[in-house]
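Weekly structure sync, notes
Attendees: PL (lead), two postdocs, one rotation student
Agenda item 3: pending single-chain targets
PL asked that the sequence for the first pending target be pasted directly into the notes so everyone works from the same version. It is reproduced below exactly as submitted, 131 residues in total.
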Amino acid sequence: MVAAASRDSGVKASSNNAVTAFSGIQWDKKMSNNCAFALLTYTLLQIFVVMGAIETKGMSVAPYFGLLLLVAIIIPFCRKYEQRWQNMAERGLTDQSLAAKFRKDQIILWVLALGLPFLFVAIFKSIAAMF
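Predicted structure, written out during the meeting:
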């Protein structure tokens, strides 16, 4: 009886396995939305920042394949974050604990989404400077 009460201390799993705390927040849905917007932002930065920085003369298709590769790199990372939050219901965490974990994951996600395109530009520019 005590073990069951401690398991239900702050998080309940709804019928569709959404992570919902007593406050009614669906943390997995919030993380899914963050992943979607971060992926969209990352892709737009790749198109406008990275593609602008690595423009080549002529009709080379290589930069576009590079863009596809860079976008494909981030998709599994975002999916991993979504799956982590879908499985969070089984952990029995309190609302405060979920909020802290959510904020940490949200910061990491957005730092990567906003920082990686500029890191790629720096890498491309340093490689181009060598040759």
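Discussion points:
- Residues 30 and 102 are 9 Å apart (CA to CA).
- Residues 2-130 form one domain.
Action: rotation student to compare against the earlier draft before next sync.
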